[in-house]
Amino acid sequence: MKWHLLLVDDDEVSIKISSFMIEETHFHPAPISFENGLRASEYLREVYKKEEKYVIFLDINMPVMNGWEFLDEIKNFTEPANVKILIVSSSVHEDDKTRAGASEFVIQYLSKPVSPDTLEELKHSASLGFLFNE
User: Fold this and answer.
1) Range of 66's domain?
2) d(C-alpha 36, C-alpha 59), whole Å
């Protein structure tokens, strides 16, 4: 099954660390990164197909379009059945975690940086394991 992995974060170091961890754990062969939600939503609008799967590692605090605005935008043209979002943030505010949990797209809230152990756990999780077991 073809699936897409998008990394949406304005912090270049976070993107590099995440990309390295994803490669090392064989989580995905070719993640695509975006420095803000607007660029990611424009890309997703162009490539989105209901029969494909999309996993998005999304930062909250970004310029141009932040993570919350991105979530609002993709509701207009995607479905939670095939778009799974993991909030990856340095924010420890309980309000952010609550807000993330209220989104039908968000499957988990992770702290930066994403560790190899977390990626391995995701491979076997109920929400993403199907991507790795085919």
Assistant:
1) 3-131
2) 9
pLDDT digits (tens, 9 = 90+) for 78-132: 999 999 999 998 877 788 788 888 899 999 999 888 899 999 999 888 888 878 8
Reduce the DSSP state of residue 106 to 3 states and report it: strand
Q: How many domains would you assign to the chain?
A: 1
Q: CATH number for the domain including 86?
A: 3.40.50.2300
- Distance CA(90)–CA(112), nearest Å, equals 5
Q: Is 130 helix (H, G, I), strand (E, B) or coil?
A: helix
DSSP code of residue 113: S
- Match 């077991």 to its residue by tokens: 133
Question: Alpha-carbon distance 1 to 52, whole Å?
Answer: 8
DSSP string computed for 5-17: EEEE-S-HHHHHH
